[in-house]
């Protein structure tokens, strides 16, 4: 454990990370790649909680734009994250990693309900806990869920694994060639500059509860391990 910087982490996996090139649906071979990397970190003895997104299935905001009631559309989004969580659980368990899924909306036939103390006990016992159904409330995001759960379980850091982007930039590097990468930022700077990292609710919750965030590219193999071992990659957000 000596070369571990973060002992307990909350990892935010967007729905996109579980989808194939199409960016939609569940792609088991794609999930396998992520699962194998997570296993490597788990093998180091790091306690890992994962918050899964659902953007590969459905986004409440998009539903609302098409005329649905926002809260109803958000519940669909939260249920989408549960499907992702089950797929990730299946994959992790198939390579020998013990896991538990906890949902913020009860569905006891498929997962445990979210119980903070039980989640912490699972982590202590070396199980990966996958948090599904977001916060259980509409109008929030799974980024905010990450900040909330990280605060609740006293995580050392939120690891924000991005698809193909290696940190936080002043503008979208895929669209603007003058975009500059930040090595370090504060949560307040993210809010003030309107940077597209997390939504404002997630940033302010992380700031208020002093939770650092590391944003890095998960398409480069070994990056999750590098971050937990303290190698400086991506963008670190603190303070
Ligand atoms: N969602 C919600 N409350 C939460 C978390 C998520 O209503 O606490 C809904 C919301 O509609 C969101 C969808 O679930 O669009 C999927 O989550 P998110 O967009 O955060 O997924 P990601 O972009 O990380 O894949």
UniProtKB/TrEMBL annotation:
InterPro entries: AceGlu_kinase-like_sf (IPR036393), Asp/Glu/Uridylate_kinase (IPR001048), Uridylate_kinase (IPR011817), Uridylate_kinase_bac (IPR015963). ATP binds at residues 12-15, 55, 59, 163, 169, 172. UMP binds at residues 54, 74, 135-142. GO terms for cellular component: cytoplasm. It is an enzyme of class 2 (transferase). One of its GO terms (molecular function) is UMP kinase activity. Residues 20-25 are annotated as: Involved in allosteric activation by GTP. It catalyses: UMP + ATP = UDP + ADP. The keyword Acyltransferase does not apply. One of its GO terms (biological process) is UDP biosynthetic process. Its EC number is 2.7.4.22. It comes from the Bacteria. Keywords: Allosteric enzyme, ATP-binding, Cytoplasm, Kinase, Nucleotide-binding, Pyrimidine biosynthesis, Transferase. It is found in: Cytoplasm. Pfam families: AA_kinase. Allosterically activated by GTP. Inhibited by UTP. Residues 7-217 form the Aspartate/glutamate/uridylate kinase domain. The keyword Nuclease does not apply. Catalyzes the reversible phosphorylation of UMP to UDP. Belongs to the UMP kinase family. Homohexamer. This is Uridylate kinase. It comes from Ligilactobacillus apodemi DSM 16634 = JCM 16172. The gene is pyrH.
């Amino acid at each position: 454990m000596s070369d571990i910087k973060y002992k307990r982490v909350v990892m935010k996996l967007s729905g996109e990370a579980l989808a194939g090139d199409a960016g939609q649906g569940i792609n088991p071979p794609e999930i396998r790649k992520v699962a194998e990397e997570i296993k490597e970190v788990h093998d180091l003895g790091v306690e890992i909680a994962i918050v899964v997104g659902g953007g590969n299935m459905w986004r409440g905001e998009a539903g609302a734009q098409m005329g649905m009631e926002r809260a109803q559309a958000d519940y669909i989004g939260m249920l989408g994250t549960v499907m992702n969580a089950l797929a990730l659980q299946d994959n992790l368990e198939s390579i020998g990693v013990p896991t538990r899924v906890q949902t913020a909306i009860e569905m006891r036939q498929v997962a445990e309900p979210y119980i903070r103390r039980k989640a912490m006990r699972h982590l202590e016992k070396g199980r990966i806990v996958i948090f599904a159904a977001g916060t259980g409330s509409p109008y929030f995001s799974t980024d905010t869920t990450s900040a909330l759960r990280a605060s609740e379980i006293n995580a050392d850091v939120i690891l924000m694994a991005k698809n193909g982007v290696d940190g936080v930039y002043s503008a979208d590097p895929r669209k603007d060639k003058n975009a500059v990468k930040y090595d370090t930022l504060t949560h307040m700077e993210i809010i003030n500059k309107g940077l597209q990292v997390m939504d404002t609710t997630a940033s302010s919750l992380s700031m208020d509860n002093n939770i650092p965030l590391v944003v890095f590219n998960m398409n480069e193999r070994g990056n999750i391990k590098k971050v937990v071992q303290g190698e400086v990659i991506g963008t670190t957000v603190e303070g």
